[in-house]
Specification:
This protein has about 280 residues and is α/β, with parallel strands linked by helices. It contains eleven helices and nine strands. It has two domains: about 10-190, Rossmann fold; about 200-265, Orthogonal Bundle (Helicase, Ruva Protein, domain 3), CATH 1.10.8. The chain is elongated and about 65 Å long.
């Protein structure tokens, strides 16, 4: 298809097209579609996954950033009345305007360098999906699923909204061109409400950015630096929240972060409400 349209994959867009049919089917299975869902597909590419999603869903809104691929996509999905194509950057588009209401399923094969930005864009939208099914670099998917002790800013940013799990691993050879790493399909089932309410969430993201700014340092030191308070005052706040000041940001659970947010919100910068 690429040759026929005289196209080459763009490295700058992270274009590695998934060409293995069994891997494509596993992604659709991970989405657990019943035929009644509306799907937002990000990075429709050459339409291989788009068609399979359309067979299993009520409607597919397929977004593709590369304008060169639109004639190919139009040709590939021409027989499907339940597919809408949109050319554009998902980060510049409002999911609420695309999908109209929350509760849809978001499916994407995304380059690792914009994984975090896309996930946050979807999860902080006025119209959140019911679940995400994201194919990404395997190492990144594993980081998102980490437990306390190995948590990262990205993992917490996802886990505050829902429960992530890896549903499939995909070898590099399933893509064209073949990337240098294996991939995984990550499913995130969103909670009815995020772990933090709107006010708390803004403080939470402010706080974890402080905590992970120098993740090798103890929370006593990172919070003192971020809040411009003494180490002794930082230690008192942590102890008041039941947290050992010598612990590090990656060791705290979401429950402990919530306790700390409630302890510190009076002195945290900003007014909460978002990220």
């Amino acid at each position: 298809m690429l040759n026929r349209h005289h196209l080459d994959p763009r490295k700058g867009l992270g274009q590695n097209f998934l060409v293995d049919h069994n891997a494509l089917c596993r992604i659709v299975e991970s989405a657990a579609l019943t035929g009644e869902e509306e799907v937002l597909e990000i990075g429709a590419g050459l339409g291989s996954l788009t068609r399979l999603l359309a067979d299993a869903a009520k409607r597919v809104m397929a977004v593709e950033i590369d304008s060169r691929l639109m004639p190919v996509l139009s040709e590939v999905v021409s027989g499907y009345a339940n597919i809408d194509l949109v050319q554009g950057d998902i980060l510049a588009l409002d999911p609420a305007q695309l999908m109209g209401a929350p509760g849809y399923v978001a499916v994407a094969n995304i380059p690792y360098y914009i994984t975090s930005a896309i996930v946050r864009h979807l999860l902080e939208s006025r119209a959140r999906p019911a679940r995400l099914v994201l194919t990404m670099q395997k190492e990144v998917a594993e980081r998102i699923c980490a437990e306390p002790g190995e948590l990262s800013l990205l993992a917490l940013s996802v886990q505050v909204f829902g429960q992530p799990r890896i549903t499939a691993t995909i070898p590099a050879g399933a893509f064209y061109p073949v990337p240098g790493v294996d991939s995984a399909t990550l499913r995130v089932d969103l909670y009815p409400q995020p772990f933090f309410n709107d006010e708390q969430r803004g403080y939470f993201f402010t706080l974890i950015r402080m905590g992970f700014a120098q993740k090798r340092k103890t929370l006593r030191n990172t919070l003192a630096a971020g809040l411009h308070i003494s180490g002794e005052e930082s230690a008192r706040c942590l102890l008041s929240a039941g947290i050992d000041p010598q612990r590090r940001a990656q060791e705290l659970s979401l429950v402990e972060w919530k306790t700390l947010v409630n302890e510190l919100k009076e002195i945290l910068p900003g007014k909460g409400g978002g990220n």
